[in-house]
């Protein structure tokens, strides 16, 4: 039986201030919960229907509480709950897991506001082997239920930290590339193998303060009149794909003797 206090606690984790105080966040569904458990995230509470518990006996947390579908619905933030809901500890800042076979790319987010965009960007980072995401303090909270679900488990494999971007840039030797309207065509520009890629706010782009730190301004060209702008998550995917494509093309063209 799920208690009123348990429901209240889960519901409060929708609020950023409560998540920060408790250092906890909610994840739902077999894919997201499974990826977080596999990655070693600390489980604080878990609720699951009998089917999920029976199918995951070897990996299920011993503290998993057996609940009915109706009880899970009372706890869930989803319109259609997905078998399991778990509360995890928000990790302290960790060193990213580097992909030794890939050049180092870091994504820096300057004021991204939409949870769906942030979740998709985390998935994009995971897809392109980018394990470090640095966010300005005014970027949406990556541990909100909406963002966590939008990542589809990728949040388990990307190190996310919030910090002043200018201070972070001052501590790195990597070139800083940013997508701006007056940048150079990304398809005809030389791109470094290793870099920090800055993506800006949905409406205003990269802030003036952060723009001063950009060494290489880049533009994704528009091929016909019409749309005023690209969604920032789509722009991030295009930019990361071009960086990785260039490296792949360079490696493929190298002699093998």
What is the level 1 CATH name of the largest domain? Alpha Beta
Largest sheet entry: 6 strands, parallel
Q: Uncertain runs with pLDDT below 50, 5 residues or more? A: none
Instruction: Let me know the average pLDDT.
Output: 90
Overview of the molecule:
The protein is α/β, with parallel strands linked by helices. It folds into 2 domains: 4-89, 60s Ribosomal Protein L30, Chain: A; 105-253, SPOUT methyltransferase, trefoil knot domain (Alpha/beta knot), CATH 3.40.1280.10. It is 35% helix and 21% strand. It has 10 helices and 10 strands. It has helices at residues 4-12, 16-22, 30-38, 50-55, 69-75, 115-127, 145-150, 165-170, 208-211, 232-253; strands spanning 24-28, 43-48, 64-66, 84-89, 105-110, 132-135, 159-162, 176-185, 195-200, 216-219. The protein has a 6-stranded parallel beta sheet. It has a 4-stranded mixed beta sheet with strand order 1-4-2-3, with helices on both faces. α6 (115-127) runs parallel beside α10. The chain is elongated. The model has no long low-confidence stretch (mean pLDDT 90).
């Amino acid at each position: 039986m799920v208690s009123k206090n348990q429901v209240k606690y889960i519901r409060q984790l929708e609020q950023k201030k409560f998540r920060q105080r408790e250092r906890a966040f909610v994840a739902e569904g077999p894919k997201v919960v499974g990826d977080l458990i596999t990655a070693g995230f600390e489980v604080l509470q878990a609720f699951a229907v009998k089917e999920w518990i029976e199918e995951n006996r070897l990996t299920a947390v011993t503290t998993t509480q057996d609940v009915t579908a109706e009880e899970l619905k009372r706890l869930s933030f989803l319109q259609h709950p997905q078998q399991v809901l778990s509360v995890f500890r928000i990790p302290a800042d960790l060193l990213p897991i580097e992909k030794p076979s890939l050049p180092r790319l870091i994504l820096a987010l300057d004021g991204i506001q939409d949870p769906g965009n942030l979740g998709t960007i985390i998935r994009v980072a995971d897809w392109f082997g980018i394990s470090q995401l640095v966010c300005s303090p005014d970027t949406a909270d990556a541990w909100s239920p909406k963002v966590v679900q939008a990542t589809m488990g990728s949040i388990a494999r990307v190190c996310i930290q919030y910090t002043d971007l200018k201070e972070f840039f001052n501590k790195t030797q990597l070139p800083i590339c940013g997508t701006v309207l007056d940048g150079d065509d990304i398809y005809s520009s030389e791109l470094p193998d290793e870099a920090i890629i800055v993506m800006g706010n949905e409406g205003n782009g990269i802030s003036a303060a952060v723009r001063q730190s950009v060494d290489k301004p880049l533009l994704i060209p528009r091929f016909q009149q019409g749309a005023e702008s690209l969604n920032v998550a789509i722009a991030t995917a295009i930019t990361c794909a071009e960086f990785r494509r260039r490296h792949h093309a360079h490696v493929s063209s190298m002699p093998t003797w």
